[in-house]
């Protein structure tokens, strides 16, 4: 290990065996991120009136489609690695070796979320708003997989936290002297994402407090960070951070239209899309979000129905008839022919 540097894990840490199975650490990091995001999103949705476990149902659509989208995006932006003579066609699908683009997972995952929301009756933007903080947490956890694979680092640096990369690592830049330290982009992005979680939640909390104050004073609360606004802030935050990180990233196999890396283009689109969501949804939905469900698709309150059924079952025999008799007596007392009633 070089003095004042961050060592990369030994390549043997990238995978281990369980009987006949080979478990890849990269895949475990992705899985851990998915679980964390699903748990956070489910808690946020339940606090807004959604049925427990609905985030898991939607994740069953979003995760596989997101993984496919991530791989397609990576392949399209690194065609030199996957085309040409002697290239193994199975390399296109070996996602455990790394190469899953986050922007591609967002595009594919959005399609999966849309399908899942259509199936469950949940509003798409309601799910996206609940997902935003959890998505940043998942991305932070997933970057540990890039660290293990030694595949996400920046330009050479002499800073004390420079990252060591083995000279035989696939992404080690050709012609670079052995022992060169690099910016640890995986760590930068982890820190940026976790700060983003705190920022988004802080903004959300302040908006909620302001709406509560308006309601207490008899005013009309606004929409807050609902109707997609929270997700719009996520896109802006992540796009800003990613565009800077990509500007110092070493990725010699990435295609660069007009000399600008593809991920910087996509980061700019993400920022513009986030701003667009804030503006458009702000005009379309200035009112508070009363339900996370599409009107008419709200789940039935099974607990209330069970309670009503239990109350009916506990009524003493003959109570219904007695009730009817009491009702009849009351009607007779209020009859128009009753002298007292006619006064």
TrEMBL record:
Task: Give positions of region: Disordered.
Answer: 290-343
User: Would the keyword Transferase be found if you checked this record's keyword annotation?
Assistant: yes
Record membrane topology = Multi-pass membrane protein
Q: Which GO terms describe its molecular function?
A: phosphatidylglycerol-prolipoprotein diacylglyceryl transferase activity
Basic and acidic residues: which segments have biased composition? 311-324
Q: In which pathway does it act?
A: Protein modification; lipoprotein biosynthesis (diacylglyceryl transfer)
Query: Subcellular localization, per the record?
Result: Cell membrane
Q: Which domain of life is it from?
A: Bacteria
Keywords of this entry: Cell membrane, Membrane, Transferase, Transmembrane, Transmembrane helix
EC identifiers of the protein: 2.5.1.145
Query: Which residues are a 1,2-diacyl-sn-glycero-3-phospho-(1'-sn-glycerol)-binding?
Result: 143
Q: Transmembrane segments in this chain: where?
A: 23-41, 53-73, 93-117, 124-142, 185-203, 223-240, 260-280
PROSITE patterns the UniProt entry points to: LGT
Is Membrane among this UniProt entry's keywords?
A: yes
Group of enzyme by EC? transferase
Tell me its family.
Answer: Belongs to the Lgt family.
Query: Which function does this protein serve?
Result: Catalyzes the transfer of the diacylglyceryl group from phosphatidylglycerol to the sulfhydryl group of the N-terminal cysteine of a prolipoprotein, the first step in the formation of mature lipoproteins.
Q: What is this protein called?
A: Phosphatidylglycerol--prolipoprotein diacylglyceryl transferase
Species of the source: Promicromonospora kroppenstedtii
């Amino acid at each position: 290990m070089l003095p004042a540097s961050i060592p990369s894990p030994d390549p043997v840490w990238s995978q281990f065996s369980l009987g006949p199975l080979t478990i890849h650490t990269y895949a475990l990091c992705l899985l851990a991120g998915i679980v964390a995001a699903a748990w956070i999103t489910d808690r946020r949705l339940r606090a807004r009136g959604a049925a427990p476990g609905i985030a898991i149902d939607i994740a069953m659509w979003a995760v596989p489609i997101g993984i496919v989208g991530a791989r397609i995006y990576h392949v399209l932006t690194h065609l030199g690695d996957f085309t040409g003579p002697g290239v193994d066609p199975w390399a296109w699908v070996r996602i455990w070796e790394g190469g899953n683009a986050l922007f591609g997972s967002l595009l594919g995952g959005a399609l999966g979320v849309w399908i899942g929301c259509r199936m469950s009756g949940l509003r798409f933007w309601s799910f996206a708003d609940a997902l935003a903080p959890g998505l940043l947490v998942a991305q932070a956890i997933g970057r540990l997989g890039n660290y293990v694979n030694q595949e996400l680092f920046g330009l050479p640096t002499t800073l004390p936290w420079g990252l060591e990369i083995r000279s035989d690592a696939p992404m080690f830049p050709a012609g670079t002297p052995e022992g060169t330290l690099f910016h640890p982009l995986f760590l930068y992005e982890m820190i940026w994402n976790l700060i983003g979680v705190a920022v988004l939640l802080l903004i959300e909390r302040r908006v909620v407090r302001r709406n509560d104050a308006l309601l207490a004073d008899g005013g009309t609360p606004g929409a807050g960070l609902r109707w997609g606004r929270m997700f719009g802030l996520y896109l802006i935050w992540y796009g800003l951070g990613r565009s800077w990180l990509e500007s110092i990233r070493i990725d010699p196999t990435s295609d660069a239209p007009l000399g600008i890396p593809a991920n910087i283009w996509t980061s700019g689109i993400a920022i513009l899309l986030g701003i667009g969501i804030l503006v458009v949804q702000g005009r379309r939905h200035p009112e508070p979000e009363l339900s996370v469900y599409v009107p008419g698709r709200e789940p039935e309150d099974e607990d209330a129905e069970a309670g009503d059924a239990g109350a009916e079952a506990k009524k003493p025999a003959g109570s219904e008839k007695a009730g009817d008799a009491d009702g009849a007596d009351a009607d007779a007392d209020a009859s128009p022919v009753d002298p007292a009633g006619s006064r």
